[in-house]
Design a protein that fits this description.
The chain is an alpha+beta fold. Helices cover 37% and strands 23% of the residues. It has 14 helices and 22 strands. A 6-stranded mixed β-sheet has the order 3-2-1-4-6-5, sandwiched between helices. The protein has a 5-stranded antiparallel β-sheet with strand order 11-15-18-19-20, with no helix packed on it. Strands 12, 13, 14, 21 and 22 form a 5-stranded antiparallel β-sheet that branches. Helix 3 links the parallel strand 2 and strand 3. The radius of gyration is 27 Å and the shape is globular. 29% of the residues are buried.
Length: 462
């Protein structure tokens, strides 16, 4: 039936999106229709490679049998098929629905290359339910935009081609083609919010307003346009308050914005950092505590999955800081003519790159070993460009390094003839010790440190 084929053709007409199409196939009506249309009409997209994936959440006793059903359907359609088993147990305060959704999309994201897209069968009825759920949660334009037809997921894409197709149209297609699908009994449990809206609320609304699904979907599209415009405004404001690192904002400039713009730019900033957005009360508390606190105060606001801190005239956003054992050390071994990345769990990673005229002198690295540790107190250090050494604590304070970062900054020590020396070669944020720095024209090894909470932003320190 063309009603199901047309939206797919429209979406896949953009050949830039992906060449590898992964169908999220649960065995239910909606995803079975999507699977069948793609498998039987694949000649419309000969350049696309199709594959189906069933996600086993492990939450239902029949989940294995459902996976076998999906495998049989895909075999009959001559379609590649895989099963992903995931852990969908909720975290404290998380609903089972939210936990399953989070785990499912996390699993799918790991499967997507830049040239791949996940296709799901969300339809017009789902869009209406999503908008109502967001409305009842007090969401703003971004939440009321509901589900986009095209978005990014991991390194690839997430496509929802059926958002303008009613479930009734999918049901008609399934019956016409004699499809056999799975009925999950949990979909009728009105203890779940979405099911309550689907079975108790929307049928009543539909009696009065027959086109309620399409009307609500249209509202979602309008909210999406508004959200896009708000993001453009917030991006311009973020450019004004930005600093040298994306996880930091300039407090004096932030104060100059209107209260509405402050809230908007803070939400946009957190989204760019892939951090959870606080609710309205928490957001207001963040702005009040960080913008009005005295200069010598270091306020911190926490909510599930994130925290915002202020130090001096900068605002910092990050995932929650876990415990840190400053006594731990790491041995860094060379691999012949190069040094592999050194992962510091929960902190970041170190890298050494060959260079000329800067970095550590090659002779310092002759043993092929380095020791990486953290501040214990009492260390002294003389960076390149300084005549005298100084207490490391004072150097870090002078460099404006926040207190919570000082204890986590890696210190690189010399290892000579398999013996760890007390010679401090380099400190993240401060650079190379002057006594061990390569001379102009001399080959050296430049350390680079990147924070784990800024995986996309490499911080280069000389």
């Amino acid at each position: 039936m063309k009603v199901c084929l047309l939206p797919l053709s429209k979406l896949l007409a953009d050949k830039r999106l992906a060449r590898h199409l992964i169908i999220g196939y649960s065995g239910g009506l909606d995803s079975h229709v999507l699977l069948h249309v793609l498998a039987t009409q694949g000649h419309h997209w000969p350049e696309r490679r199709l594959e189906a994936i069933y996600v086993d959440h492990g939450l239902h006793t029949a989940s294995v049998a459902w996976g076998e059903h999906c495998a049989n359907v895909c075999r009959d359609l001559n379609l590649p098929f895989r099963v992903l088993k995931i852990d969908a147990r909720p975290t404290p305060g998380e609903s089972p629905e939210a936990a399953a959704r989070r785990a499912r999309y996390t699993a799918f994201a790991t499967e997507l290359s830049p040239d791949a897209a996940l296709l799901t069968a969300h339809h017009c009825d789902d869009q209406a339910e999503t908008l109502l759920l967001q409305l009842l949660r007090g969401a703003g334009p971004h939440g009321l935009a509901a589900m986009p037809a095209v978005s990014r997921l991991g390194e690839g894409w997430l496509l929802r081609p059926f958002l303008e197709v009613d479930r009734a149209e999918l049901l008609a297609y399934a019956r016409t083609h004699d499809l056999q699908w799975i009925e999950d009994a949990s979909n009728t449990d009105i203890g779940f919010d979405r099911n309550y809206l689907r079975h108790q609320v929307l049928p009543v609304l539909r009696e009065r307003w027959p086109a309620v699904n399409r009307t609500l979907s249209r509202s979602a599209r309008l909210c999406a346009e508004t959200a896009t415009w708000l993001d453009e405004e917030a991006a311009a404001d973020l450019a004004r308050v930005a600093t040298e690192r994306p996880d930091r904002l300039a407090v004096p400039v932030l104060r100059e914005l209107s209260a509405v713009s402050q809230r908007s730019v803070l939400r946009y900033w957190l989204r760019q950092l892939h951090l959870p957005i606080p609710d309205a009360r928490q957001l207001q508390q963040i702005l009040h505590d960080t913008l009005t606190a005295a200069a010598d105060r270091n306020p911190c606001m926490r909510w599930p999955g994130a925290e915002v801190r202020r130090y001096r005239d900068k605002l910092y956003a990050m995932p929650p800081l876990g415990p840190h054992d400053a006594r731990q050390t790491f041995i860094w071994r060379s691999a012949g003519d190069h040094w592999p990345l050194l992962d510091l769990p929960g902190i970041g990673r170190l890298e050494l790159r060959k260079t000329i005229g800067k970095g550590l002198r090659s002779e310092v690295l002759q043993s092929g070993l380095l020791l990486v540790g953290f501040r214990q107190g009492g260390e002294r250090f003389r960076p390149v460009g300084r005549k005298h050494s100084q207490e490391l604590k004072k150097l870090l304070q002078g460099a404006g390094v926040p207190p919570w970062e000082r204890e986590r900054l890696p210190l690189i020590y010399e290892v000579k003839e398999a013996v760890i020396t007390d010679r401090l070669l380099a400190v993240a944020e401060l650079g190379i010790a002057a006594d061990f720095a390569a001379e102009p024209g001399e080959m050296g090894w430049q350390p680079y440190f990147s924070y784990s909470d800024l995986s996309d932003t490499e911080l280069e320190k000389p």
